[in-house]
Design goal:
This protein is an alpha/beta fold. The chain has 17 helices and nine strands. It has three domains: 206 residues, Rossmann fold; 84 residues, Ubiquitin-like (UB roll) (Roll); 84 residues, Up-down Bundle (de novo design (two linked rop proteins)). The termini are far apart.
């Protein structure tokens, strides 16, 4: 199997839309029926690349059903998940692919406004992104009656303030409206009532880039890669204790071992593989017994691991699992928005117990409470942050309790 693919990333480092054939995907789209554009994405089997894995074609179809005069498209570039940097690479090396995907979606669903929600830590990109947008305007790829079609659409940039919770789409929208970035009660869903109560399509950076590549090359080319249930390719963020970390486009179906040892060129210093987290720190641990699991939605689901953002954090035998879990829980304690009690108080209490576990000074009550609190968070938290925050801890308690509950000298 070929190690890496250049389907989504084929135009990396081409600095102008002139160099990528004048937006071939969008040129093709404007000569198609809008229903056919959406159907092409449906047939591709593309799922949201931000982590929710909602079928992108279905989302476009549902968005097209709303006929309000004002309709928003938001590209979610609030990439705050530790270990995840695929969106950064797309914005740095192919911003036009991202913007073209937004354009294609706007044409297909009759959207009027586009916004790139950029995480605060990526503000160093703003000048280059604004230059790219201005270049597009000069070529009539943004503005009124784009390329003499009925589409009038422009894209602006909104800079976030650094909150991890704003990666969740309703929190993101709340912050754009000048409110605290906290999740909304659903329904209504954003497709019906999103930004300023207008229909709003929110997709991840990588989702829009993939839309652009699919329409440019045809869905048939996309589904040549991957598996039946997970067609196509995925841009992953490989990091941690590997010799060659980086962002790589891989076909679904490669095993975790192949990704770590072939693409990542193995574990640093010749150490052994201890565990990994897939999808960032909000996922359960992937242990050595799982290392030959294919990287696909269906196969990861078999071992109870969500795909998430596609990050793969590799941890080697030199690391203490309690130190790692402590760092994970500290992150979630810091990033909890505080809206709901299970997450706000749960993260704080888990961190306190982990501190005692690390010191070897825990009580029998701690061994009971740590799992009880973690499960309460998983099932009772208001949003995905609190629900997934204890995922690594719960999987460690299940699979390697001897490393969690041990006395320290």
């Amino acid at each position: 199997m070929k190690k890496t693919i250049s389907f989504i990333t084929e135009n990396f480092n081409k600095s102008s839309p002139d160099l990528v054939g004048g937006f071939q995907g969008f040129q093709r789209a404007i000569n198609m029926e809008k229903e056919d554009i959406i159907q092409e994405i449906v047939l591709s089997g593309l799922k949201g690349r931000g982590g929710a894995k909602y079928p992108t074609g279905k989302k476009l179809m549902q968005s097209a059903e709303h006929h309000d005069k004002e309709k928003y498209i938001i590209c979610n570039a609030d990439e705050g998940e530790p270990g995840t940097f695929k969106d950064r690479e797309l914005l740095l090396h192919d911003p036009y692919g991202v913007f073209e995907g937004m354009l294609i979606a706007a044409f297909a669903i009759n959207a009027s406004h586009g916004i790139l929600y950029l995480r605060e830590e990526y503000k160093y990109m703003i000048d280059d992104l604004k230059n790219a947008l201005n270049h597009m305007r000069s070529l009539n790829l943004l503005g009124d009656r784009i390329l003499k079609t009925e589409l009038s659409f422009d894209i602006s940039i909104f800079l976030g303030a650094g909150a991890y919770i704003c990666g969740e789409e309703t929190s993101l929208i709340e912050s754009m409206e000048g409110k605290p970035g906290r999740p909304r009660i659903k329904p209504p869903y954003t497709l019906e009532k999103g930004l300023f109560s207008k229909p709003t399509l929110v997709n991840n950076v990588a989702t829009f880039s993939t839309i652009s590549a699919i329409i440019r090359n045809g869905y048939e080319e996309f589904i040549k890669y991957g598996t039946v249930e997970s067609p196509g390719t995925k841009l992953i963020s490989l990091c941690g204790n590997v010799n060659k970390p980086g962002a790589y486009e891989v076909p679904f179906g490669m095993t975790i071992r192949e990704i770590i040892y072939d693409i990542g060129e193995g574990i640093r210093n010749g150490n052994s593989f201890k565990f990994a987290q897939i999808g960032g720190v909000s996922g359960p641990l992937v242990l050595p017994k799982h290392i030959d699991t294919p990287f696909s939605y269906e196969d990861l689901n078999e071992i109870g691991v969500p795909m998430g953002s596609g990050a793969i954090i590799v941890v080697d035998s030199d690391n203490d699992i309690l130190d790692y879990l402590d760092a994970v829980q500290a992150f979630f304690k810091h990033e909890s928005c505080g809206k709901c009690t299970p997450c706000r108080e749960g993260n704080r209490q888990l961190l306190n117990i982990l501190s005692r576990l690390r010191e070897g000074k825990y009580s029998q009550e701690d061994t009971i409470n740590i799992e009880k609190i973690a499960k309460t968070m998983k099932y009772a938290s208001f949003c995905g942050l609190g629900q997934s925050a204890p995922a690594a801890l719960l999987s460690a308690i299940e699979h390697c309790p001897q490393e969690i509950f041990k006395r320290r000298d």
